[in-house]
Each structure stands twice: as structure tokens, then as C-alpha cells.
From TrEMBL:
<comment type="function">
    <text>Catalyzes the condensation of (R)-4-phosphopantoate and beta-alanine to 4'-phosphopantothenate in the CoA biosynthesis pathway.</text>
</comment>
<keyword id="KW-0547">Nucleotide-binding</keyword>
<keyword id="KW-0173">Coenzyme A biosynthesis</keyword>
<keyword id="KW-0067">ATP-binding</keyword>
<feature type="binding site">
    <location>
        <position position="39"/>
    </location>
    <ligand>
        <name>ATP</name>
    </ligand>
</feature>
<dbReference type="GO" id="GO:0005524">
    <property type="term" value="F:ATP binding"/>
</dbReference>
<dbReference type="GO" id="GO:0015937">
    <property type="term" value="P:coenzyme A biosynthetic process"/>
</dbReference>
<dbReference type="Pfam" id="PF02006">
    <property type="entry name" value="PPS_PS"/>
</dbReference>
<feature type="binding site">
    <location>
        <begin position="186"/>
        <end position="187"/>
    </location>
    <ligand>
        <name>ATP</name>
    </ligand>
</feature>
<feature type="binding site">
    <location>
        <begin position="180"/>
        <end position="182"/>
    </location>
    <ligand>
        <name>ATP</name>
    </ligand>
</feature>
<dbReference type="InterPro" id="IPR038138">
    <property type="entry name" value="PPS/PS_sf"/>
</dbReference>
<dbReference type="GO" id="GO:0016881">
    <property type="term" value="F:acid-amino acid ligase activity"/>
</dbReference>
<protein>
    <recommendedName>
        <fullName>4-phosphopantoate--beta-alanine ligase</fullName>
        <ecNumber>6.3.2.36</ecNumber>
    </recommendedName>
</protein>
<comment type="subunit">
    <text>Homodimer.</text>
</comment>
<comment type="similarity">
    <text>Belongs to the archaeal phosphopantothenate synthetase family.</text>
</comment>
<comment type="pathway">
    <text>Cofactor biosynthesis; coenzyme A biosynthesis.</text>
</comment>
<keyword id="KW-0436">Ligase</keyword>
Length: 250
């Protein structure tokens, strides 16, 4: 895929950067996406570049929400498409969720390029091109969604989302699952389930939990959802940031 020596101590991080760069070259990732990647990397470094027990519990709660939902949707932006296209398709398959391209810096061209990219990685249906509904409270381009997609969803996974949009979706009464390495970000703070973890690890982890919970009853799933405390998850992550990855929090 790229010319990074596998024994380089920062191999994973360099590979990730290359994927984002390739995304920009392919017209699927915005130049803003490069900045977002740098920010995410810094948080990941401070968190120890691993899935914490607390983030794993959040991933399990997210899987339970997905399985209980009437209409779950995975929102995909330019960074998500560049980093984890196959993992998005696998999660959709494991949970019956729709996939919808939804961009902060929306251009029709980029929506089409991302939809095509996801289909190249196995997606059957990709929503986001119809854009026949609006999220109330956001400016025109940023508000566009599909009427039979995000607009209709009861549970939405919004990874690496901008705070304004996360807030506006929450105000529509949707259950929001956010993947964001910054526990202080507004999107993480408004989420019913904030998963403070790198999307590279978090998405396959939610899929793994969804497969594991496939045979669970609605009562068992509801119990997992009820037991999850979003404020505690954010506190765990913040403590880990401040005290360092070695001072384990549980
Ligand atoms: O493709 P578009 O137009 O929809 O734009 C996408 C970006 C990500 C550029 C846009 O939504 C944006 O500007 O987001 P922000 O406000 O930079 O927020 C992105 C958040 O994701 C930040 O809190 C980062 O720390 C976090 N982040 C970045 N990379 C990762 C991440 N979280 C998890 N995994 C990552 N790999």
C-alpha cells in the first residue's frame, strides 16, 4: 500500500497518515481532514494508542444500541472513508445499518467519490446523494441528509464529527454514538455513547461486539445500554490523558 518500513516504531501512525494523504489525492478527504488527523494522532499518543477497558465498554454499549435500533445509520465523512472503508461495510453487515455519506464540507463531487470508494470496498447501497431532507438548525450545505437515511434514523454513528452537527442531530432526538479521540470535544460530550478510541480500532471492535451479541435478547441488550454511563466514560478518558497511559483507571 505504501512505502513505510514495517519495523519503523511509528509504523501504524505513518500508515494512517498515508491513507489520509491518499484520500486527499483521490478526492475523498478534505484538506481539513489532514488537520483533524494530526489532532487525533496527538490524543491517541497521549492515550497510549490502545483500546482502554472503558472504551471497550463503550463499544459494547454502541453495539447493543445498534442491535436494538429500528433504523441505525453509519455516517461516513472524508476521513472515515479514507481510513476504514471495509470496516464500515462490515459493521453495516453485522448490524443491518445503512451507510450514508454526510460531509462537513459538502461538495457533490466528494459525496460521489466517497460513495464510489465505499462500493469499491464492498458496500451495496450508499445513501447521501439524494439529500432531500435537512437537519434543522444548520446552514444549508451542512444540513443536507437523505429523508430515508439519517433523517429517519433512530440511532446514528457519527465518527470524527464536528460539534455543531453532533449537537443538531442530538436535538432531533436521535441516539448518537460518537467515535472521537478527544474526550473534551463537543461531539463526545453530547453523545449517548462516546467511544474515545481511534476509529481504526473502535469500528472493528463495535462489529466484534455486535457479532458477539447477535443472539442476545432485547432485555439483555437494554441492560447493557442502561448500565453504560457516558459521563463516566469521558471522565475515564480525561483521567488517562492527564495521568498518562500507565496510571490505569480501573
Ligand atoms: O469530510 P468532511 O468534510 O465531513 O470533514 C471531516 C472532518 C474530520 C475534517 C471534519 O468533521 C472536522 O473538521 O472535524 P474536527 O472538528 O476536526 O473533529 C474531528 C475530531 O476527530 C477531533 O476531535 C479529532 O481529535 C478526532 N479524530 C481525528 N482522527 C481520529 C479522530 N478520532 C478517532 N479516530 C481517528 N483516527
Amino acid at each position: 500500500e505504501v512505502d513505510v518500513p514495517a519495523d519503523h516504531p511509528r509504523y501504524q501512525s505513518l500508515l494512517t497518515r498515508h491513507r489520509i494523504e491518499a484520500g486527499v489525492e483521490k478526492g475523498i478527504t478534505s484538506t481539513q481532514g489532514l488537520i483533524a488527523e494530526g489532532r487525533g494522532e496527538a490524543f491517541d499518543y497521549l492515550l497510549g494508542e490502545e483500546t482502554t477497558p472503558s472504551a471497550d465498554r463503550a463499544a459494547r454499549a454502541a453495539a447493543a444500541h445498534f442491535l436494538l435500533a429500528a433504523h441505525p445509520v453509519i455516517s461516513v465523512n472524508g476521513n472515515v472513508a479514507a481510513l476504514v472503508p471495509e470496516e464500515v461495510v462490515e459493521l453495516a453487515e453485522a448490524t443491518g445499518a445503512d451507510i450514508e455519506v454526510n460531509l462537513f464540507g459538502r461538495t457533490e463531487e466528494r459525496v460521489r467519490a466517497i460513495a464510489e470508494h465505499l462500493r469499491e470496498h464492498g458496500a451495496e447501497e450508499v445513501k447521501g446523494l439524494t439529500a432531500d431532507a435537512r437537519i434543522p438548525g444548520l446552514s444549508h450545505e451542512r444540513a443536507k441528509v437523505d429523508a430515508d437515511g439519517i433523517y429517519d434514523a433512530d440511532v446514528v454513528l457519527v465518527p470524527l464529527e464536528d460539534g455543531d452537527r453532533a449537537e443538531a442531530l442530538g436535538e432531533m432526538g436521535k441516539t448518537e454514538i460518537v467515535i472521537d479521540l478527544n474526550p473534551l470535544s463537543r461531539s463526545a460530550r453530547v453523545a449517548a455513547v462516546p467511544i474515545v478510541d481511534n476509529i481504526l480500532r473502535a469500528l472493528p471492535n463495535v462489529t466484534r461486539h455486535a457479532r458477539d451479541l447477535a443472539g442476545a435478547s432485547d432485555a439483555e441488550l437494554a441492560e447493557i445500554v442502561e448500565a453504560f454511563d457516558p459521563a463516566a466514560a469521558l471522565d475515564d478518558a480525561e483521567r488517562r490523558l492527564r495521568e498518562g497511559a500507565v496510571a490505569e483507571d480501573e
